[in-house]
Amino acid sequence: MRTPILLSVLATLASARVFDSLHAVPKGWRELRAARSDDAIALKIALRQSRPAALEQAVLEISTPGHPNYGMHMTRDELRAYTAPSESAVADVTAWVRRHGARYSVDNDWISVSTDVGTANQLLNTTFSWYEYEGGGGPKLRTLAYSVPDEVADHVDLVQPTTRFGQLGSQKSTIFEMTIVDESVPAQLHAHVDLSGAADAVDVACTGVVTPDCLKSLYHINYTASADGNLVAFASYLEQYARYADLQTFETNYVPQAKGQNFSVTLINGGKNDQNSAEGQR
């Protein structure tokens, strides 16, 4: 009876494909301790997209001048149609997760898994431990290698956080000198420029400050924008927020003809719109 059982175990181990591995703990990190089997862990499984070549072609078309689709934009649903995995991929991978008793949810080409370390170790044939970055940031659950069964390996692109030891953090400013300008004298903020198009027509003031007039002169922008304008979207990170008061100050000092224009904010995944932050995003 023991031989068949042993062969079955060996066959199970052999069917697991190593997806990623590190030869050592990355520089700047150190292992604190092995994780307990009941430590909670959240994993993200990226499923292989079914139409990556078609997505690449669509992006090339909308970004190639002269193409009929140039300048067009895909809707969220159109983009998700390109990135969606096959139905069999979703079925096989969720069945694999279910067999280990882990909770999960599916969002297009991502599967979010909530479980404990003991289950995660079995799921990925690995051993999670707690690691700490020497620069701070708190302990992180990571591993040096993980595997995925052959039966689902062709459906999976990656599972994280596992072997990624990246450390997020705000970056230091590269501004070493700063001059405080009296906002009560906005005329001082304006650099006089000549829009004649001559390469040497840019006012010397533009070497010390950047204004919309400076940019127009430097890049020879000599047309009048459409009254309908353009839409621009940007994301705010690291607790920096776009502030209405900052935009109004900018319009008053630099682009008085645009005074009164504003922006709207869409909050995603618990985001904030802090108008009283210490530092706005300018």
From TrEMBL:
Keywords: Signal. Residues 26-165 form the Peptidase S53 activation domain. Residues 1-16 form the signal peptide. This is Peptidase S53 activation domain-containing protein. It comes from Phialemonium thermophilum.
